[in-house]
């Protein structure tokens, strides 16, 4: 298996001295489904945003697809970002535009300034958008305005917008944090499918440890800006949880060891 | 884990032994607001009591004023111009308002992109905002008179001055609508590799289009009113100029009544159009 993304000693310090990430190193293989867990403010979001450089890391190397992309600017940065799809907790769609228009936004990085600004998309791109929406079960909604959709539907539009970029990596920033359990499952199943069938690497921030254990090939535990756990879900122990969340697993109403055993038994 | 305090039945026990509880804390801003209100109230009463009325009889003059109003509004007539000339005057005034609104809207659109904090950085945004705030602080009439020094009193000075003020007003309004867009949406488009202009036209503009239209139309209504005043004050022509001539040169208050009805009719039409536009774009 080839390595798609490698983070080498990545740090992020803010001007006021706060350290958001310190010396983070890990690598992710092609097609892998990796979940990042950790308490609020541990640096999960910062970690994700350092990869597509929505936030500029202060130190280290980020090797994506065999190229060190640290410090990319302008055209090169935009080109790199087209290869990384991103979805968000708050979906971040343009509410007043239709579903298909929002999906087509995923092609903006490939377009000239003028064509993109005027929204001139090719027939091919439109067909692709339609096909993606069909696959995600939103065929009936393509002309609906996004503010009329439910949370789960919005997130699926977000996934379609990321997929139409034809990305190698999907960055998911707590995609199910605002969704009900049933929509959450739909979204997680779609993401798993993306990683399994399309061989797109998925890197996902999650609050729900049980969801992470169910879906992820690998779990990265983050606490106070450092990686404290990096391994397969069945290796995760209650001690690891304590190291990540700073309190005992029982108090967090989870018991990862039971869950790990159950999952192993299923297989 | 720390145990949270348990609720017991005391919460419903008699409360008459507790000291009275104030609903509002006496903060600095509360004190300042109250003091200001009291001072203003006192000054208002003082002002009315100590009017210098030059021994005029208040009631007599009040009735005289109403008599004048009656002449203006119940006996309007045409004397120095015909209906079609008055209509032409209204059109000139409307054109003046429309032209300055369009010039203002186009320039303000680009300026407000620079003024919106989520599209540029704080330095640029603050400098543009300060600049337009200064321009806005000076009334439109004064700007027209300032430009009249270069262009001479007349329509040219009126157009430049009114456009100038419209630009600053609309820049503020537009940039505030732009700033309403969630930061996350801009982030999402950046993450797709979209460039700045693409973000502007694909997210900022569609999201704030309705408020852009309603602000622009509102400014058009304001500019129509200002255009009437400019006709009188700066000789910019149109219905305002006719009113000025009737009032100041011919002392024909009946003709002023006619003109007032013309302006009123236009104002009502503009209001109706504005309500219609707003109803359509909300959908």
Over the alpha carbons, how many angstroms does the gyration radius of chain A reach? 19 Å
* Strand-residue proportion of chain B: under 5%
The poorly predicted ranges of chain A are: none
Identify the CATH architecture of the largest domain in chain B: Orthogonal Bundle
Strand order of the largest sheet of chain A: 6-7-8-3-9-10
In terms of structural class, how would the helical and strand content of chain B be classed? mainly alpha
Which whole number gives the mean pLDDT of chain B? 88
**Total of domains of chain B:** 2
SSE pattern of chain A: EEEHEEHEHHHHEHEHEEHH
The count of DSSP E runs of length 2 or more, i.e. the number of strands of chain A, is 10
H/E series of chain B: HHHHHHHHHH
> Which structural class do the helices and strands of chain A define?
alpha/beta
How does the overall form of chain B come out from the CA principal axes? Answer: extended
Distance between the termini of chain B: 52 Å
Tell me about this structure.
The complex is a heterodimer of chains A (267) and B (283). Chain A is of the alpha/beta class and 267 residues long. Chain A is built from 10 helices and 10 strands. In chain A, the strands form 2 sheets. Chain A has a 6-stranded mixed β-sheet, with helices on both faces. A 4-stranded antiparallel β-sheet of chain A has the order 2-1-4-5, covered by helices on one side. In chain A, strand 1 (3-13) and strand 2 form a beta hairpin. The longest helix of chain A has 17 residues, at 181-197. The mean pLDDT of chain A is 89. Chain B has 2 domains: 3-53, no CATH class; 81-282, MetI-like fold (Orthogonal Bundle). Chain B has 10 helices and no strands. Chain B has helices spanning 28-49, 58-74, 83-115, 122-137, 140-151, 155-179, 183-191, 196-233, 239-249, 253-282. The relative contact order of chain B is 0.12. The mean pLDDT of chain B is 88. The A-B interface holds A 52, 54, 78-82, 84-86, 88, 90, 92-97, 105-111, 113, 116-119, 158, 161-162, 165, 171, 247, 251 and B 1, 182, 184-185, 187-195, 197-198, 200-203, 206-207, 209-210.
